[in-house]
Amino acid sequence: MNAPDRFELFLLQDGEKKITEKVFTGMSNTSDFILMKEDHTLGNLLSENLKQAPHVMMAGYKIAHPNVPEVMIRIQTDGTITPREALVNICKQLVASYGQLGREFQKEFALRQYADQGEQAGLNAQGQGNGGF
Amino acid sequence: MDYDPMAMDDSESLGPVVKISQADKQRVKFELSNADIAFANSLRRVMLAEIPTIAIDLVEIEENSSVLADEFIAHRLGLIPLSAEGVENLLYSRECDCDEYCENCSVKLVLHAKCTGDEMSVSSRDLVPTADRISQNLGTPVIADEDGLGSLILKLRQNQEIKLECIAKKGIAKEHAKWAPSAAIGFEYDPHNKLHHTDMWYESDAKAEWPMSEYADWEEPPQEGEPFDYDAVANRFYFNVETAGNIPPETIVTEGIKVLQQKLAGLIHELTEGDNENGNGDYNGPRSPEFNGGGEGWQDPGYTTPYGNGGNQSAWGGGGATTPYGQTPYGGAGQGGWQ
Predict the structure, then answer these.
(1) Composition bias, kind Gly residues: at what positions (chain B) (predicted)?
(2) Would residue A64 count as lying in a domain?
(3) Where would you tag: which of A56, B66, B217, B230 has the fewest CB atoms within 10 A of its CB?
(4) Domain boundaries, position B112
């Protein structure tokens, strides 16, 4: 059978780079970034957040074929920062935001467990056993 | 700053907010607000497809006189949820030094049953993990039913016998759905369809024919004759994360966040590689001994991709953080980002 291995959807091949920048000459201050072995998870996340970022004139992404795990993100900036800087800033900001989400979630979850403890101690003992995972 | 004033209100600077409405052994329901739809959806996608768990991947059948074909049973075995407690210390088989599999990258389970009576059921309780596994519960079949039997694998009639050995390996659901940690993830927003993202089909009256969302009371219903707000964006998202049993539901959320952060961190790392020459360059090359030593594995030693620059000591792990969400050098950016 000629079906490609499914791990090729997320495993970089030997020598393959995760992300490469290609300057797009048709527009000013514009670069295309090719993300290998990625999908809409990062493509949409990054391009939607880039659109809201300062100094970014345009951002968009495409996945040329659903069977091909490659994402192309095109970024145009106003020239004060390079597209690469814009992308790095967005990534950093998202790491921080997700970090905050994680802390927020764990805080809320701990509070919830604490509240449950008062109500039904028995049921909570099981939950606690799982909590150490 | 040339920044959309619509999004500039005070709440924006607070970042994502979580409110948990239900949490038990099976599911956690929570509301995520102050986030945009891409942010929420990426988390959903990652929780569905990219959290590492463990599932049976190889089956060696020694004896099968049941009515079911070998490959049929092998497929059923693959879908049995196994406890993924401690899976972060398990290597991916393809990245292990061993030939095919070993105790560092797999868990072996054996099944041997012979029907001496009239009829018998073989269920996941009868799958016995062998002793040589890296952590105590890793790979134990999940048993959640009242009778304590687990999932039914097959039935045997008199004198039929099944004897086999299973190798459970680490993987992610992108490769095969058997590695999915979540049975289902509920995801909804805008219960009153104010944004018109959905078109409700109806016979005569959409309002009467469609049931209300359980979150309908959480949000203001539209006023009679209210004009459509073209600038409105989705802002509150309702998650319902249900586990298949292999990972507790709250851990699915925290692990999902971790995986997503690792993905982004990998991009930052690669994009800024040339900028700071701290010699963390070649991912494919041999890794330094401290690679696996860094803390409790949020860097997922041996993960396929180049996020590996040293456990919790990584640039974005933050010094001494107990969780992966510990302080980051970019912590400031969390508060409102580019403002």
Answers:
(1) 308-321, 329-339
(2) yes
(3) B230
(4) 54-178
The count of domains in chain B is: 2
What is the distance between the alpha carbons of residues B306 and B281, in angstroms, rounded to a whole number?
Answer: 10
Hey, are the CB atoms on A7 and B94 less than 8 Å from each other?
yes
Predicted ipTM of the assembly: 0.87
**Contact across the interface for A131 and B254, Cβ inside 8 Å:** no
Q: How far is CA A55 from CA B2, B233, B323, in A?
A: 8, 22, 33
The angle that helices A40-52 and B249-271 make with each other, rounded to 10 degrees, is 70
- Going from the C-alpha of B267 to that of each of A40, A83, B26, B150, the distances in angstroms are 15, 14, 34, 41
In this complex, the residue of A45, A55, A97 whose CB is nearest that of residue B16 is A97
Q: In what order do the strands lie in the sheet with B236-243?
A: B17-23, B27-33, B236-243, B182-189
> Which domain CATH number covers A30?
3.30.1360.10
pLDDT tens, residue order, chain B (339 aa): 444 444 444 444 578 999 999 999 999 999 999 999 999 999 999 999 999 999 999 999 999 999 999 999 999 999 999 999 999 999 999 999 999 999 999 999 999 999 999 999 999 999 999 988 888 899 999 999 999 999 999 999 999 999 999 999 999 999 999 999 998 899 999 999 999 999 999 999 988 999 999 999 999 998 888 899 999 999 999 999 999 999 999 999 999 999 999 999 999 999 998 765 444 444 444 444 444 433 343 444 333 334 434 333 333 433 333 444 444 444 444 444 343
As a whole number of Å, the CA-based R_g of chain B is: 24
Do B45 and B102 belong to one domain?
A: no
Q: Which residues of B touch A117 (CB under 8 A)?
A: none
Please identify among residues 207-246 of chain B the ones whose CB lies closer than 8 Å to any CB of chain A.
none
CB B128 within 8 A of CB B111: yes
Contact B248 A104 (CB under 8 A): no
Closest C-alpha among B189, B188, B191 to residue B207: B191
